[in-house]
Amino acid sequence: EPGYKRLAWGQPVGLRHTGYVIELQHVVKGPSGCVESLEVTCRRADAGEKPKAFIHWVSQPLTCEIRLYERLFQHKNPEDPAEVPGGFLSDLNPASLQVVEAALVDYSVALAKPFDKFQFERLGYFSVDPDSCQGQLVFNRTVTLKEDPGKV
C-alpha cells in the first residue's frame, strides 16, 4: 500500500534504539496458511542507506493484558437534557473499553507492582492494575499520547 512505512517487501526498517536495520527475505507460513515467522537480513544502520521507517520491537517479550479506556460518555455534557434527551445512561460509550488479552511488553516490567506507572512509547501512560497477579500483569491506559482537545 502506498505510504505504508513498516516492514514490507523491498522496504527495510530500522529497529528503534538499536542501530540495526532489517529487511524481509522470506515469509514462513504454517499448514493453515498463517504466518509463523519472518526471515530477515540484518545490518548495522551506518552500513547503508538510512531506512524511511523505524519499528518498535521487544527483545524479551512478556505476555500481559492491556485495558484501553476511552471516554465513558459520547457527549461532552451527558447530563444536559438539550444535548442528551434520554439522560446520561443513554449516552454511555459502548466502545469505552477495549481489552488486548495477549499484548507483548518488555520483560523489564515483570516485577512491577500495582499502581506502578510506565510510558509505553507512542501509545500512552499505563498503570499496573491491582487485578495483576504473579505471571499475569494487567496494565490500564491512563492517558493517551494523542488527545485532541476539540474531540468529544
TrEMBL record:
The keyword Nucleotide-binding applies. It is an enzyme of class 6 (ligase). GO terms for cellular component: aminoacyl-tRNA synthetase multienzyme complex; cytosol. Residues 54-129 form the tRNA synthetases class I (E and Q) anti-codon binding domain. Pfam families: tRNA-synt_1c_C2. It catalyses: tRNA(Gln) + L-glutamine + ATP = L-glutaminyl-tRNA(Gln) + AMP + diphosphate. InterPro entries: Gln/Glu-tRNA_Ligase (IPR050132), Rbsml_bL25/Gln-tRNA_synth_N (IPR020056), Ribosomal_bL25/Gln-tRNA_synth (IPR011035), tRNA-synt_1c_C2 (IPR049437). The keyword Aminoacyl-tRNA synthetase applies. SUPFAM superfamilies: Ribosomal protein L25-like. Keywords: Aminoacyl-tRNA synthetase, ATP-binding, Ligase, Nucleotide-binding, Protein biosynthesis. Belongs to the class-I aminoacyl-tRNA synthetase family. This is glutamine--tRNA ligase. The gene is QARS.
